[in-house]
Amino acid sequence: MKCPKCNSDVETIAFDEVKIERCTSCQGLWFQTGELEYLRKETWMADYILDDGDPKVGKKFNRIVAIHCPECGDDMRQEFDEEQPHIVYETCPNGHGTFLDAGEFTDLVHKTFWDRFKRAR
Ligand SMILES: [Zn+2]
Ligand SMILES: [Zn+2]
């Protein structure tokens, strides 16, 4: 498959039974349905392997919003994260997956971590 944003090759990162595609150029991440929910709970993984792209590059590519699902070719929908509306990502309307720009995954899981911390007090 090719990166839906910049059309470069993607590499597969396997983690347990979860396989994430990462773009070799813009470092965006493609999550299949369910994988994102699963990985959000594993906050330590954001630092470990997944999202080491340059957030500045991610911001640049974040402005590209007219992208197509790499599985079915349909226009992807922009969605705001419920907990962190400043994070916008693209999701396939047919449920194939979600694309996050470099840095967005880290942002997502870390904020979630701190939000939980605040709630616990
Ligand atoms: Zn890319
Ligand atoms: Zn699709």
Strands, helices and their partners?
Blueprint: E1 10-15, E2 18-23, E3 29-32, H1 35-40, H2 44-50, H3 55-62, E4 77-80, E5 88-91, E6 97-100, H4 104-120
Bound molecules: zinc ion (2 copies).
One zinc ion binds at residues 69, 71-72, 74, 92, 94, 96.
Please state the CA-atom Rg, rounded to the nearest Å.
14 Å
Q: Low-confidence spans: pLDDT under 50, at least 5 residues? A: none
Strand order of the largest sheet: 1-2-3-6-5-4
Number of strands: 6
Shape: globular
**How many helices?**
4
Report the end-to-end length measured between terminal Cα atoms.
Answer: 44 Å
Q: What hetero molecules are bound to the protein chains? A: zinc ion
* Integer average pLDDT: 83
Beta content? 15-25%
Estimated structural class: alpha+beta
Report helical residue fraction: 25-40%
- Indicate how many domains the architecture comprises: 1
The profile of the biggest β sheet is: 6 strands, antiparallel
User: What is the ordering of alpha helices and beta strands?
Assistant: EEEHHHEEEH
